C-alpha cells in the first residue's frame, strides 16, 4: 500500500506541474492579447481610450494569474515532493520490516527442522546395540547388530546418506558405506569430534557446518554428531561418537519450495536464499551454485533490510541452540520492486497518466 501511495503522489506531482504550466501559458497568452489590444486602442485615438483601460485591466489580471500559477507550482509541488520523500522512508520501513519478519520465519523453519532431526541421532546413541559394540570392538556379532540398527534408521528416512561409529581414539570403527579411504581417516583432533567426546550429557549434540563431502560425490551435507555414553541416558563415560550424514541439498530444496508456497505475502519472482556463517549460498530458490558468496550488506547485523537498485533485500540470522555454538544460517529474501507504471496500473490510473492535458476528461465525457 505505501508504494501505491508513493506512485499516486508522483502522479499528482507530475499532473500538478502540467496544469500549473498550462495556467501560466494561458496567462502569458492573455497578456499578449491585452498588449495587442492596448496597441490597437492607441491607434484608435480618443475612441479607443475606454478599450485601452479594459485591456490594461486584462493585462493586470493575466499577470496576477501568472504569479498565482507560479506560486502554486512552487508551493504545492514542493510539498508533494516532501510527501514523496516521507513515503519513500515509510515504504522502506514497512516493507523491509515485513520481509525481514518473513526471512526470520524462514530461518527459524530451517533451523527447527535440523534440530528436530537431532532426535534421531540421540535416540540411536542410547541404543544398547550401539553401546555394546563400542565397548567390545572385537566382537563381530555386536558389530553386525550395531550395523543393522543403523540400517534400520536409513529404512525410515531417505534424507540420511551415511552413519558411522568412532571410538574415543578417533578411529572409524563402523560405517554404513565402507569406503576404504574414508575408513582410514582418523578424526582425533577434529573440532566436532572433540566436542562430542567431551559432552557433559547424552542430550548434547552438534551440527556445525554445511559442506561438500568429497567422500559423497561432493554433495552438500551436514553431519550430526553426539557422544555415546556407557549407560545411555543414565550417563557414564563417553565410549565413542555417533555420526549421521544428512542430505542438506535435498533438505534445502524442500525448504525453499515450501517457503514459496506457504506465505501469502510471497510474490512471483521472489528469490529465497540460505547462507552459511560466511555468507556463502547453501540453498536457493533460483538455482544458485552452492558455495557462491553473496554480497550481503549489513552482514554484521542479525536482522535487517535495505534497497539495492530496484530490489528490496531482507535478511535474518540465527543458529541452532545446542550449547555448542553450532550451525548458523542466514535467510535472505530478494524482491523486485514494482515500477511506478505498474503501481499506477494497479490503481487504474496507468493509461490516464500518459494522456495529454484534458484528454482523459474529454474522452470520459
Outline the structure in words.
- This protein has helices at about 1-45, 50-125, 130-135, 140-155, 180-185, 190-195, 250-260, 340-345, 360-365, and strands at about 160-165, 170-175, 210-215, 220-230, 240-245, 270-275, 280-285, 305-310, 310-320, 330-335.
- It has about 375 residues and is of the alpha+beta class.
- The strands form two sheets. The chain has a five-stranded antiparallel sheet. A five-stranded antiparallel sheet has the order 7-6-10-9-8.
- A hairpin with an 8-residue loop joins strand 4 and strand 5.
- It holds the Pfam family MCPsignal.
- Keywords: Transducer.
- GO terms for molecular function: transmembrane signaling receptor activity.
- Belongs to the methyl-accepting chemotaxis (MCP) protein family.
As a percent range, the share of strand residues is: 15-25%
CATH homologous superfamily label of the largest domain: PAS domain
Distance between the termini: 30 Å
- Total beta-strand segments: 10
Strand order of the largest sheet: 2-1-5-4-3
Roughly how many Å is the radius of gyration?
36 Å
CATH architecture of the largest domain: 2-Layer Sandwich
Largest sheet: 5 strands, antiparallel
What is the CATH domain class of the largest domain? Alpha Beta
Overall geometry: rod-shaped
Class per helix and strand makeup: alpha+beta
- CATH third-level topology of the largest domain: Beta-Lactamase
Low-confidence stretches: 352-365
Mean pLDDT: 80
Domain Methyl-accepting transducer: 14-76
InterPro entries: Chemotax_Me-accpt_rcpt, MCPsignal_dom
Family: Belongs to the methyl-accepting chemotaxis (MCP) protein family.
Pfam families: MCPsignal
